[in-house]
Amino acid sequence: MPKSSVPGTASEGHSQEAVSAASSAPSAVASTAPGFRPLLGHSWQLVRDPLGWLDKCRQAGPVLRVKLGPRAAYLVTDPDLVHRVLTDPAFEKGGPLMDAARDLLGNGLATCWREDHRRQRPLMQPAFTLPRIAGYAEVMREEAAQLTATWTPHRETDLIDDLSSATLRVMIRAMLPTADAEAAGKVAQQVRILLDGALLRAAVPFPFLFRLPTPGNRRFDRARRDTFAAADRIVATARAKPDASGLLSALITSDGSAPDGSDAFTDEDLRDQVMTLLSAGGDTTATTLAWAFHLLATHPEAERRLHEELDTVLDGAIAGPDDLPRLPFTRNVVSETLRLYPPVWMMSRITIADVDLEGCRLPADTEVFFSSYQLHHDPRHFPDPEAFDPDRWDRREPGDRHSFIPFHSGSRKCMGNTFALTEAAIMLSAVASVWRFRPTPRHDARPRPPRSMTPADVHLVPEPRPGRLSETRGIHAGR
Ligand code: HEM
Which intervals of the chain are annotated as region Disordered (predicted)? Predict the structure, then answer.
């Protein structure tokens, strides 16, 4: 599939009718975000304490000017304006953060420009329909059953490792069944290093720092080489088995519409989709589950109510998609976890035309940041925002939709959102039916931004729930 040119300016590659016009009225000047430092601008805040800084920014105004070193950008903190950034075609997925991600992960669905996106998304969409997800749910249930058999009672475990392996196995079996597990594991592990590096490289705009032969930079370069090589191997295996099921085989046989096949997927295109799936779909769900188990381990009343619901509705069986509507508290736990710790906590867009935002005129080619974490912790929309309160989802006003965006919205909304919510509910309910977790002294559940939203350390001690472990294993085997 030919790549379209990446526009460097507003005029290249984009039709004017698609973009909103800037107001000709005199424009307000956005305030500068708090925490500015000479030379570094706000990069210092983003590296040192991004979540604390975002909270101060919310109080400073709906649209703020920020500087990342010499680079000027804007930060939008109001939910309705963020919704506009996500849905108005004047804002395109781009800017230095996306350029860094595209450089590292290729031109797959999550990182490509609009022209490629228009073609790629419909081709990928059939793999994410509800009937297909119902099929993947069988794989999720099997992997959930295997996960519950992983732990030894009272022996400490690194939950992030356990959950990442389980969600990776689900992804491979569901979407990339021809991939060998070792190559996919390598991609998923190294992609973590690459994503961490991409965020850091966007926050610290001094490229020479990342060319120095430091151990961190060498590790990063090695990860990039190894990841691409492993993803190439996954594509070669899929090409050798065109009749197999899975996303790659579907893309290979989709052929493209041009008579000469010039728009068919090349090996490079396919490799980029492998990188997309393994970066967008693996750790995000594992991170959510790790936070959920941490929150339950530290909130006994919520844990008790979850157990009560699971015991009543499932009685030891592993949930399937049809059971999920009957598990409202389980779903509330997942929503509340995604509110508190959204895995994709910060993102950017670039304006492709002059735009008027809340009276501020943003010229074309302006980088605009927004943060789901910051919206989710806004006390105007979530009273007592730091509290873990799953019941708040029963009290929530239906009109207040724009303030909760773990999967974002608009044309670049997460394509795997239903997949992820189904997987999270199945894994959470399967594990919590039989296990509870207790923190260890070295358990350190602080989020690690700017690297990622993964908790710093989720070492927990699994304890079998009285009377449920052996009973449930029997039921799992029989269902
Ligand atoms: C809790 C889990 C997940 C969260 C919180 C999450 C969040 C997100 C967000 C916020 C975006 C949009 C990024 C943007 O606006 O620029 C996104 C994009 C995407 N996600 Fe997810 N994701 C999750 C799981 C998954 C899974 C399991 C898959 C695949 C099976 C997946 C596949 C994708 C893809 C392909 C895109 C790119 C969509 C496009 O640009 O058209 N995600 N995700």
Answer: 1-26, 440-479
